[in-house]
Amino acid sequence: MEIVGLLAAVGLAAAGALHAVWAFSPWPAVDRTTLAKVVLGDEGEGFPWAPACVGMAAVLAAAGYVVAARSGLLPVIGPRQLYTVGAWTIAAGLLARGSVFPAVITLRGRSGPEFKTWDLRVYTPVCLVLGGLSLAVALS
């Protein structure tokens, strides 16, 4: 279970690090407009909004910690039940994002082709993999 937890925690931390980068830079896109098209599906006036990026980075870092602690890789601080509930919540959120969100985007029809391509090729599979790994940790 430690390997599964490590994979999930590293994936969540990496996603968090990417969101932190977006608070200050459009990397890996060439500019903020391109990044907004790929990440939001439109030109996203003012994207990336630094406080939102930093907030999401913090949420993803915390999720990585919860999964790592639940799988025995890091110390548990506070009641162990919080880590169990946390792992279930993380898994549910990621699996919902990976399974329901693409259908909503398709039905909504307002997102551009850049976002739809990235969502189907990258965002959705990453969410499903991290959600599955987090579910395995939650079940352990």
Question: How do the strands and helices of this protein lay out in sequence?
Answer:
Layout: H1 2-22, H2 32-39, H3 50-70, H4 80-99, H5 101-108, H6 113-139
Helix pairs in contact: 1-3, 1-6, 3-4, 4-6, 5-6
Structural summary, described in words:
This protein is mainly α and 140 residues long. It is built from 6 helices and no strands. The protein starts with a helix and ends with a helix.
A few lines on this structure:
This protein has 140 residues and is mainly alpha-helical. The protein has helices at 2-22, 32-39, 50-70, 80-99, 101-108, 113-139.
State the end-to-end CA separation.
7 Å
Overall outline:
globular
- β-sheet strand percentage: under 5%
* Class inferred from helices and paired strands: mainly alpha
SSE string, helix = H, strand = E?
Answer: HHHHHH
The helicity comes to over 70%
Largest sheet: none
Rg, alpha carbons: 16 Å
Write down how many β-strands occur, each being a DSSP E stretch of 2 or more residues. 0
Counting DSSP H or I runs of 4 or more residues, the number of helices is 6
What are the low-pLDDT stretches, counting only 5+ consecutive residues below 50? none
On the 0 to 100 scale, the average pLDDT is 87
Q: Which structural traits does this protein have?
A:
globular, 140 residues
